Amino acid sequence: MKIDCHCHILPGIDDGAADLEEAVYLAGRLVKFGYERAVCTSHCSFLFHNTPKTVTDACDLLREELERQGIRLDLVPSMENIG
Questions:
Q1: Are 55 and 11 in contact (CB under 8 A)?
Q2: Is the CA virtual torsion 16, 13, 78, 21 positive or negative?
Q3: Nearest residue to 16 (alpha-carbon basis) of 34, 40, 37
Q4: Contact present, 73 and 31 (Cβ < 8 Å)
Q5: pLDDT at 45
Q6: Per-residue pLDDT tens for 18-61?
Q7: Do 26 and 38 form a contact (C-beta atoms < 8 A)?
Q8: Average confidence (pLDDT) over 54-69
Q9: Which distant-in-sequence residues (6+ apart) come within 8 Å of 49 by Cβ?
Q10: What pTM did the predictor assign?
Q11: Angstrom distances, CA of residue 28 to CA of 6, 22, 46
Q12: For 8-21, b where at least 16 C-beta lie within 10 A, e where not — what string?
C-alpha cells in the first residue's frame, strides 16, 4: 500500500488546501500517483488553532465528498504540533 505520511489536504484548516474543491483535486492527484491512504497532518499552532474535533470534522467532510465522487483514498486524521 502506498501511503502519503504527511499532507495538508484537509480543506480550509491550515496552510494546505484552501477549500473542499482544492482538497478533492489534491486527493485525486494522490490516487492518480498510486496512493491509497493519506495521513492528514494538519497544523496545530499559535497560527492554526486546530483541535481533534476541527481535524476530524474536516476529514469527515472530505471523506464524504471523495466517496460521492468515487475517489478511493483512505484518510487518516492527525495533527502536527508545531509550537
A1: no
A2: negative
A3: 40
A4: yes
A5: 81
A6: 999 999 999 999 999 999 999 999 888 878 888 999 999 999 99
A7: no
A8: 97
A9: none
A10: 0.91
A11: 16, 10, 31
A12: bbbbebbebbeebe
Q: Cell match 484537509: residue?
A: 10
pLDDT-derived band at 83 (thresholds 50, 70, 90) equals low
Which residue ranges make up each domain of the chain?
3-81
Using CA atoms of 71, 34, 22, 41 in order, give the dihedral in degrees to the nearest 10. Answer: 110
Q: Give Dmax (Cα) for the chain.
A: 37
- Count, residues in the chain: 83
- The full DSSP string for 12-49 is TSSSS-SSHHHHHHHHHHHHHTT--EEEEEEEESSS--
